[in-house]
Amino acid sequence: MLASSIPVKPSSSPFPPSTVLTKTLLPKAxxxxxxxxxxxxxxxxxxxxxxxxxxxRSSPGGALPSLLRSLHSAGDLHSRNAVLPTNNTYSMLVHxxxxxxxLQESLLWIRHMRLRGFFxxxxxxxxxxxxxxxxxQFDRAHSFxxxxxxxxxxxxxxxxEDPAFSASTSSSGANNNxxxxxxxxxxxxxxxxxxxxxxxxxxxxxxxxxxxxxLQKPKLSSTYNVLIDLYGKAxxxxxxxxxxxxxxxxxxPVDVCTFNTMMFVCGSxxxxxxxxxxxxxxxxxxxxxxxxxxxxxxSLYADAGDMDAAVACYRRTREAGLxxxxxxxxxxxxxxxxxxxxxxxEDLIDEMKDxxxxxxxxxxxxxxxxxxxxxxxxxxxxxxxxFPRSGVMSSNVRAAVMDVFAERGxxxxxxxxxxxxxxxxxxxxxxxxxxxxxxxxxxxxxxDEAVSLxxxxxxxxxxxxxxxxxxxxQMLSVVDLVEQARDLLVEMQEMGFKPPCQTFSAVIGxxxxxxxxxxxxxxxxxxxxxxxKPNEVVYGSLIxxxxxxxxxxxxxxxxxxxxxxxxxxxxxxxxxxxxxYCKGGNLEGAKAIYERMKNxxxxxxxxxxxxxxxxxxDLGLVxxxxxxxxxxxxxxxxxxxxxxxxxxxxxxxxxIDEAIQxxxxxxxxxxxxDCVSFNKVLVCYASNGQFYECGELIHEMISKKLLPxxxxxxxxxxxxxxxxxxxxxxxxxxxxxxxxxxxxRQATFTTLYSLVGMHTLAIxxxxxxxxxxxxxxxxxxxxxxYAYSSAGDINKALNIYMKxxxxxxxxxxxxxIYLVGCYGKAGMVEGLKRIYSQxxxxxxxxxxxxxxxxxxxxKICNRKDxxxxxxxxxxxxxxxxxxxxxxxxxxxxxxxxDEYDVGSEGEYEVGSEVYTNAVKIYDLGRKIWTSKGEExxxxxxxxxxxxxxxxxxxxxxxxxxxxxxxxxxxxxxxFSTWFKALEIxxxxxxxxxxxxxxxxxxxxxxxxxxSKSLPDQNKVFEFIxxxxxxxx
Length: 1032
Known about the structure:
The chain is mainly α. The chain has 56 helices and no strands. Helix 26 runs parallel beside helix 28 (536-548). The longest helix is centred in the C-terminal third of the chain and has 22 residues, at 909-930. InterPro entries: Glutathione-S-Trfase_C-like, Glutathione-S-Trfase_C_sf, GST_C, GST_C_Tau, Mito_RNA-Proc/Resp, PPR_rpt, PROP1-like_PPR_dom, TPR-like_helical_dom_sf.
């Protein structure tokens, strides 16, 4: 943290401390290149085991053992020149070993100096404290300091003050020097031998450092700084404050390092006020703050989220004449990025550029996260391209940046970072980078890529660690790729990793969820066998798995095992057990669990309450179910499942009004949030014949962007059948839906809207597929004809029929059923006669639905005589009494004549004749370009005759309908697009033969509504040419 440098006592040597160490302890030859051989041990040394004397022992590796062997060789030099170690020597050795991570070996030097009769002075004591502090052994450091203050040395298991010490220092034959009291490593033994050869007798410990009360106090500022830092890291704030207070009382000079340490200790524990007060005290004591002082405050403000204070602290650094350093900028960038202050961050980076200061790599992930959070991924990429100016980004930082992208689902950006160009300098990718990239693939649901990357990492020299396996196993288990997860779980253990409970739990939960309960049990037993204790989640998964499959006995078995293992059942586990009782219809068992759940902290959860309502409903206990539901509703906790369950119960027992009331309340409460809840309400409305409400419900569902599922469409097809849509039409819609034809779903919605009178929605829905460029089949055209006909737009309906013929989609039975409806509403009796004639001569498939449609159409046209004839034919053909009810006038309450405004029969007499000729002209035109010889010439002659008849009917009128387009205009005008093809392939000049007809066609095309509906003549020509080419 804010550790001060190692205190070294002043030396009389002319060399600096490091030079003294080198000249005193190291031999002239380099020990690292040619380590001297260790001479045989003398008889007074520690004895070796008998069998080891005959073996050649290999030298310990590393630089320190080589150094120690060199030090041992220099032992005779000490003996001859009488150079003895000092406190300074021991202090430096403790520091060197501690810095190398050899904690126990470093502390053994303190034992050695006690054996030599030395008592650690303040510098040595301070070095020991620092080594223990850095190793986070705070209590041990505290004990050592307190013992040192009392004039003794205590280091727990090292037994520095044991009786062997007294014996060894007073005995004349001190060969063992107390060494027999403990086992010493080979390295320590060699280094110990250095000072046991020769030397002076140990001097008695001095009492000069003890105070009048028998305690010695530190006198150096550096010692107090280390103590404050020690207690601060240990979280012992009062002890840190006491040391600081004692330092002030003792008159020990307080330096900037002291204040910095105290400020950090106070601030890091949330005492910002005290940290700020210390800054004021610095000024009183005449201690000038340094850059580190302001960095500490800035970091504390940043951690507290006080951006203004952090920025002000940065300014104070400048005002104090100090230069911000890397830590300053890193802290300030951190707080600005957390607040998403993009402009301020960019301004600060520009300022750093002006000062030739690079952005610290540890600031990069925060800046990238800020840009990504603001949706400006390009700026994040630009920053990464420019960084670093020199060197290579470390693996940890690279992984942190990748993780930012991964958390936002930006797997491609994370992949760019992972595979991006960089100067690897022979360095392989770190396992952390692989782990983050695997996580990124998992979040993007690219599971194959995640597994592939895992398999490839070994080939590139990076071995997966425990985190790699845990991430993959849990990821694959969540998406039910359980076999791959299981294989990785086995491989993980073969690699020597012990999977944690969470990883086992994921696999067990996946097997249980998929109903593979035997495999779930096998993994559970494996988990217990390797010594991983299952938790509540594991037992809950097993219990829930057996509960879902109605295996109450097995669910109870694992419930009892869980309780015997000392785990208490939580709400989740009890709810799973409750579900098991409910699925088995065990009311008494369910009630017992239900009552037990009431006594738990938090009370009953919603799932448990819904389970009980469902159980009551399944058992037909209406009163109990109603009471449980009403209690839940009064508490405001009833959800869609609660409402759906009670609604279903009411409907099943015949309480339709109550069911409808619940459905309406559910809708008004905004509880319809998914397909399941919508479907349940839809069924309730449909069973009560409220089809209009069904239409509204479907429209609301689509508006909420909820995609109706198979269950929804099953209900819709049932509604259409019950509401009177011809059976053939419903079967056609259902077949199109099952086959996944374009706009099959939209066509079903359109039919429902038209059926219930929601004509605006029906027309909008029909336009989406009629005006599309997708090739449609007859079912889509049929629905559009029905939609426009139901909305009263007969012209558009007939226009769609003609368009259907133009694109060579053959009409089917449903087409004729809907077309009959159009003719009836338009009063076009001749059209009805023509279709009926085709039906009689079996040119159209015989169908009761078509017979009924013709009867209805004749009645709308006030031709009850013709309707009666069709009725008799229908009865004769099907020879069934069930059709006798068609004679009843009330059976066909389609609507009054005024509703459709059909007028008299005479008004449509001419129009009907012309319409018949319009149909005839289509057949003649087809003969002209498909036939040859005399047949073609005859068709051409008849074609011109029909056109001349049209000219006679048109007379001086603008359109056949007068001043506005009529049915005949709509029926005829599509043929005009074929004239170019007829003239070329039939050598027929229509304009010269019938100029009046061509003028009429040109007037029609000038209307935007007509021109938009007609195909281009050139495209028609190309189409016919292609057909002729293929047909030869």
